[in-house]
Amino acid sequence: MWTGNIRIYVTVQVVGKTWMGAGFCEVDLRLITKTSRMKLKLTKSVALDIIVFLFMVLFIYAAATKLFEYKEFEAQIGKSPLITKYAGTLAWLVPGIELITAAMLFVPHFRLVGLYASFSLMFGFTAYIIFILTFSPYVPCSCGGILSAMGWTAHLVFNIAFMLLAVIGVILLVTVSKNENQVSYS
Amino acid sequence: MEKKHILIFIGCLLSVTLVMVALYASSPINSKIFRANFDRKLLPETALEEKNAFELEASSVYISGVTADKIYISNTFKPLNLWISDYEFKNTHDIRLKLVGVDSLREPSAFRTTVDPPNFFLSNGIMPIAMRGTIDSWEAKKYMPDSSYYFVEAVPISTSSMALKSYSSNQQALHLARKTAIDTPYFKFKYGLLEKQKDGVFCVNGKLHFSKDLHKLIYLYAYRNQYIVMDTNMNLSYRGNTIDTFSVARVKLTQIESKKLTMAASPPTVINGLSCVSKNYLYNQSLLLANNEDEKVFKKSAVIDVYDINQGIYVFSFHVPKYRNNSLSDFRVFNNQLIALFGRHLVVYELNNNNVSINEDFHQ
Question: Which of A64, A147, B223, B318 could form a disulfide linkage to A143, CB 3.0–4.6 angstroms apart?
Fold first, then answer.
């Protein structure tokens, strides 16, 4: 699982650089032909697609493992001192929100809202881990599937990486759609 | 990036933080410790006097035995290592235990060592195996006919018998059992000692002890206010109660049909933590806050209740403060010495003599 993490981290780096490069280029190459600008837009939208795809895979997978082992998941989060009271509700609410977020990411019209939701979810999970590691008298285990093989610290790194991905996704989405507008005006 | 989007991000962060803070505020971590409805006879803080302390190499250790002049420490992950010391930690040495007639170890971390000079005892309920040897040679041999019963806990009673806590597939519950080297059947469940309240596994869990001085076995439940006292044939002597009022195990359980698994579905509500037996006393770390107890002191220490098993009565309690911010992880009592482990820190305390007078008051 550790190698998986590294790979995802690297992806962030690459996407980050692509975007940074692209951002600088945009300023300098303002006068250059429309075709090169089209190319730029293409890389950006490909990067955006990758980010959206990663989030959809993550959320659908996470929701599926939770729902397939619904009772076990409910029992697991019931052991967590922070959410034990709401285990019954959260056991379907969390995978529900994950699926809705994945659906929003799929529909272009709701993609921006979906990215914000992804960001909020990842931040929520991150904050939860920090809470558990800091305040809980003991550390319960509560995630399903392949993600359960990760330690809490690895999980933290993974979540923060995905939070950054969501921020990059929003920036890309905003610039891509702005470019589209500019292209259509010119 | 436009201002609008930065604001939305901040909004996301704030609202999620708000939800988290609300969760935290309403969670049991934040709520006041439940105050159980009973009083403790607490010894003053000065009753416990630190004598010596020693830092061990590993924190995965437990006390495998204490005598008048020696402390024996075992390591969960290195079951064949044994560390021996005097009470001043001046004369310490390592011993490597030898297992005779065992080719391979399975589940090495399931080994438990008990040193009771001149003998020592090793058990592993998952292999399952029980071995015995003398402390002159530190060589352990099997001394009982094999049986296929796995066990959770084993306590030697005599050179030819031991008490076990084992899972009975017949009853689908944990039960106590007796195993002997001579009588047949060698292995016999003693049904009726552990009383099922819910699933028969979680709800009856607890710790088995043997008092050499009294020739009594003691079983202390983890989730309810009861202990069972038995003779060496494991016939019930009596059932005693600890000072609290938790007569029913509070464990929420869930069946996972797909995995044929029963698992706990709530934070553990253990009321009796660590425990040990010395002479006619049962020392029990209670996890409940009493009526007349200072919450701050309770949070910073382990509270130990002492029961006289001869008479089945509560005698007194004392606090063992955390050591360098480490919680108590194991302890034994020998005469008026308290031998305590806090992770890797081994500390010897003297329990003040005043206790003796308290005890004597009760004997009258």
Answer: A147
The verdict on a CB contact (< 8 Å) between B8 and A116 is yes
Are B267 and A81 inside 8 Å of each other by CB? yes
Closest CA to B258 of A65, A177, A134: A65
The minimum CA-CA distance between B252 and chain A, rounded to whole Å, is: 9
Closest Cβ–Cβ partner in A86, A128, A174 for B20: A128
pLDDT digits (tens, 9 = 90+) for B201-257: 888 999 999 999 999 999 999 999 999 999 999 999 999 999 988 888 877 777 777
Cα dihedral: A104, A107, A112, A118 (round 10) = 30
A159/A5 Cα distance (integer angstroms): 10
pTM over 0.90: no
Render pLDDT for B16-42 as a digit per residue (tens, 0 to 9): 999 989 988 887 776 677 788 899 999
Q: Which among B16, B256, B259 is the nearest to A124, CB-wise?
A: B16
Distance, CA of A121 to CA of A131 (rounded, Å): 15
Distance CA B48, CA B46 (A): 5
Q: Which residues of B touch A75 (CB under 8 A)?
A: 254, 256, 263-265
Q: How far apart are CA B352 and CA A12, in angstroms?
A: 62
